[in-house]
Prior knowledge:
The protein is α/β, with parallel strands linked by helices. Helix content is 42%, strand content 21%. It has ten helices and 13 strands. A hairpin with a 3-residue loop joins strand 9 (132-137) and strand 10. The structure holds zinc ion. Residues 164, 174, 176, 178, 181, 183 line the site of zinc ion (ZN).
Amino acid sequence: MPRFILGYDVGGTKVSAVLGDENGRIRSVVRKPTVRHLGPKKLRDDLINMGWEVMEHSGVKQPDSIGVIFAGLVDQKRGVVISSPNILGLRNFNITKMLEDEFGTKAYLENDATAATIAEKLFGSAKRMDNFVYMTISTGIGGGAFVNGQLYRGAHGMAGEFGHMVIMSNGPICGCGRRGCLEAVAGGKGIARRASENITAIHESHLFSKLKPSEIDAKKVFEFKRKGDMFSQLIVEETIYYLAVGIVNVINIMDPEAVIIGGGIADAGNDLFVPLRMAIREEFKSMYRPVKILRGLKNGHDLAPISIPIFNETETSIRNSQVAKSI
Ligand SMILES: [Zn+2]
């Protein structure tokens, strides 16, 4: 019998509960919109109900372990969510204890971008890589890295904030307070803002001129580009250039074997990856090296919470065997 893992992903727009096994097979998924204004009590009720629901779908009575991933600041060691912009009034929420009490099994917590990095190492194209970088590009930009075969967390557990690397020192203001961060320029919101700002071009584009300003988003920009809209083509080309600058910065610092890209923007597939690889090659200038630019796992967001207990339990058993050896 494989070990069954109950996974949760608490994001900005939706909350997912997933039942998967240690081999990375997803058995059942339930999703609900994130309800920000009802606070932690509503989140707690949703998580419990959704957990029982996915287990019932798969005929599982009790999970062997639980993995929770959260967009926001988490204390991974204590299993406590410090704060989150997505749930009103949520502070120092001991989410792992709450789930352990309900389901009677050990729960692990991790930041969502770190978890997605771990999923690439366990189930994705980074399986046999010791040095790689993972970047998620959606509304925001985040990520993580493995260095010499180990997850690199940094001194404060905040490594991998690639989105807050400044690429335009007088650029638009970012959510973090700085100007011209990669996220503010080439993240989903940044793409939408660059498109909305150019009023003249919007009027001239017959596809954009039909939209209300609030309907302009990164998805539309990529969609209209595919339909041959010249203005969208320009925005996409600009986006790819900024991403290439940011990615080459990271490559110059980390020297990874691969940069794996996930998040909503990866859904653009070859429309993104073909020109992005060319732009990166160009941006290397004289510092060229053969770094693979790969697409992340297609179901990475569901595998990420499943990966957390597997990763923690393997890490613990490696540590214990090292302790045993040293004794
Ligand atoms: Zn920033």
